Amino acid sequence: MNRRSFLHAAAGVAPAALVTPVVAQTVTRKGRLKQAATRGCFGRGKTMEEVCAIAARLGLKGIDLVGPADWPVLKKYGLQSTMCPGGGKLSENINHKENHAALEPQYREAIERAAAFGAPNVIALSGNKRGIADMEGLDNTVAFLNKIKPLAEDKGITICMELLNSKVDHKDYQCDRTWWGVEVMKRVNSPRVKLLYDIYHMQIMEGDIIRTIRDNIQYIGHFHTAGNPGRHELDSTQELNYKPIAQAIVDLGFTGYFSHEYSPVGDALAGLELAISTCDV
């Protein structure tokens, strides 16, 4: 399943059984973390209408990585498009300067669309190294982000560059360690350019999650979660302890979104409830 295709999912409960009753039974959360989820967390086969009805009932604030065509459905249920699609491909993106001319209008359009909808964030991807050294890729990434940051600042949109692992899931991806992403952030030096810190991916690459988040929270604009190993539910089969991670983020005064992004292997809605309640500290 390709999450960059906005996590198309498959089989669920009929819409008539979900739409009105589900919203009327919203779960009350502490809400100190603004939690969201990707579409895949809801299980296979559900329409966006069904996903949004369930998300509203579970007390989520929005859905990540949903394209503009589905934004009216989010709005209907009082949900936000918490991380909007950006530009280019995961493997070929802003770390190669020969891509910049084609990517710049895509990212500008994504920023304009997000601003028009009132969404907060647009995702950015470094792309794969494809033979270039870390510092060359870093220089190219900074140069690109510097081109588009004035528009993001003007529109009030935060560009969030995602940290992904290059060990298991995304071989050769360049923004695969916190230090590299933080160095980009320091050089770009904009309140509207941040990191998307994916806890699952950085557990694979680095571990030491809470200390790393504490040391770099000023550069982080968004979080993703998943269980490791396997990128599945946040349950007792995986090694990350999400409750103290969530508590540490709350204690740091983080005001962005904290979004679940995994592929369920059990009862999808029970797993999502577990993830939300675990991190509702």
Describe the 3D structure:
By secondary structure, the chain is α/β, with parallel strands linked by helices. It has one domain (3-279): TIM Barrel (Alpha-Beta Barrel), CATH 3.20.20. The protein has ten helices and eight strands. It has helices at residues 15-24, 48-58, 71-76, 100-117, 134-155, 178-188, 199-205, 209-216, 242-251, 268-279; strands at residues 34-38, 62-64, 80-83, 121-124, 158-162, 193-198, 220-225, 257-260. It has an eight-stranded parallel beta sheet with strand order 3-2-1-8-7-6-5-4. Helix 1 runs parallel beside helix 2, helix 4 (100-117) packs parallel to helix 5 (134-155) and helix 8 (209-216) runs parallel beside helix 9. It is globular, with a radius of gyration of 18 Å. The two termini are 31 Å apart. Mean pLDDT is 92; it is low at 1-24.
* Residue windows where pLDDT falls under 50 for at least 5 positions: 1-24
Number of domains: 1
Could you give the distance between the termini?
31 Å
CATH domain class: Alpha Beta
Oligomer kind: single chain
Main sheet attributes: strand count, strand direction, barrel closure: 8 strands, parallel
Radius of gyration (CA) equals 18 Å
The shape is: globular
Tally of individual helices = 10
User: What's the architecture in CATH terms?
Assistant: Alpha-Beta Barrel
Q: Helix amount, in percent?
A: 40-55%
Structural class: alpha/beta
